[in-house]
Amino acid sequence: MSRKIWGGRFREETDALVDKFNASIGFDHRMFEQDIDGSMAHCRMLAARGIITEDEASQIVEALGEIKREMSRGELSMDPAHEDIHSLVEAALVDKIGAAGEKLHTGRSRNDQVALDVRLYVRDKIQRALELIRELQVSLVRVAEENLDVIMPGYTHLQRAQPVLLAHHLMAYFEMLERDKDRYQGGLARVNVMPLGSAALAGSTFDLDRDMVSGELGFDRVSRNSMDAVSDRDFVLDFLYNTAVLMMHLSRMSEELVIWSSQEFGFVVISDAFSTGSSIMPQKKNPDLPELIRGKTGRVYGHLMGLLTTMKGLPLSYNKDMQEDKEALFDTWDTVEICLEVMARLLPEVSFNGEHMREAAGRGFLTATDLADYLVRKGITFRKAHEIVGRMVVFAGEQGKELGDLSMDEMTGFSRQIEEDVFEWLDPEGCVKRRNIPGGTGPETVKKCLEQAKEELGL
Question: Are the C-beta atoms of residues 338 and 127 closer than 8 Å to each other?
Answer without folding.
Answer: no
